[in-house]
Amino acid sequence: MYSLILVFTVIIISGLIAFVGDWVGLKIGKKRVTIFGLRPHSTAIFITIISGILIAIITVTILAISSNDVRTALFGMEELKEKLSYLSREVELRNMQLSSTKEDLKKKTTQLQEMEEKYQKLSEDIKSKTSQLEELLIIREGLIEEKDKLDKEVEELNAAIKALYSGIAWVREGEVIFGSEEQIALTIIQGQRPIEEIKEELFGFLNEASNKVLAMGAKKDERTNQVFI
Questions:
Q1: How many whole angstroms separate alpha carbon 22 and alpha carbon 45?
Q2: So where are the chain's domains?
Q3: What residues contact 81, with CB distance under 8 A and at least 6 apart?
Q4: How many angstroms separate the CA atoms of 120 and 105, rounded?
Q5: Which of 115, 132, 219, 224 is deepest in the core (most CB within 10 A)?
Q6: Can you state the angle between helices 40-66 and 2-31, rounded to 10 degrees?
Q7: What is the pLDDT, as a whole number, of residue 23?
Q8: Contact criterion met (CB below 8 Å) for 66 and 6
Q9: Which whole number is the average pLDDT over 66-80?
Q10: What is the pLDDT of residues 111-137, one digit of tens each?
Q11: For residue 201, what are the contacts with CB-CB under 8 A and spacing of at least 6?
Q12: 25, exposed or middle or buried, with CB in 10 Å at 0-12, 13-18, 19+?
């Protein structure tokens, strides 16, 4: 709306100036008035030229006052060109920086993918090694239990061997009461029963045999407190 009013105002003012210039030119022509020593006809032409110049000056002045863009186009074109050139260089520089940044981003993305692949592989290796370690720990626990069991059996065997050696020495030093063919005691132990009952019956039989041997004059070993039969 503002632009239409401005254009309309310029048209009216230009028309008025043209009308006044033409009217003055006619008057000067009729009265044969001269300016700067010119002939009347040349004077009328001069007045018309001046009117056109005034129209142009007034039009430009109104537009320059009313519009910042017009003032820039008329009086700041060189500065505008310099700014445009500067901005063009800045845009080119920014585009180069953007291209370099994109290239760096692409490289970093590739490196990140490689690192993620390495991380995934290491995670799988750690998981596998952890599983193997757990299996080895289980095997180790089993071996420790087996070793303890074997150590216990070795201790029992050592104790039995020690007792046997002690018994052998006692037999060699002591008196033989029964011969190899003599029967000390006899019993029948029925199977198909709980092991505890069988053990209890067996120990009872051995105690009975030991008591019988003691009654016959046998003596206990002072080191083991046992009777060797």
A1: 9
A2: 2-75, 177-229
A3: none
A4: 22
A5: 224
A6: 160
A7: 72
A8: yes
A9: 69
A10: 999 999 999 999 999 999 999 999 999
A11: 187, 189
A12: buried
> Nearest Cα to 62, choosing from 192, 54, 169, 90?
54
pLDDT at 111: 94
Contact indicator for 47, 18 with CB cutoff of 8 Å: no
What value does the mean pLDDT of the chain take?
76
Q: What CA–CA distance (Å, rounded) separates 49 from 60?
A: 17
CA–CA distance, 36 with 117 (Å, rounded to integer):
96
Token readout for 203 is 């120990």
Helix H or strand E encompassing 90: helix 77-173
| Phi and psi, residue 13, nearest 5° | -65, -40
What SS3 class is residue 11? helix
Scan for tokens 């230009």, then name that residue. 14
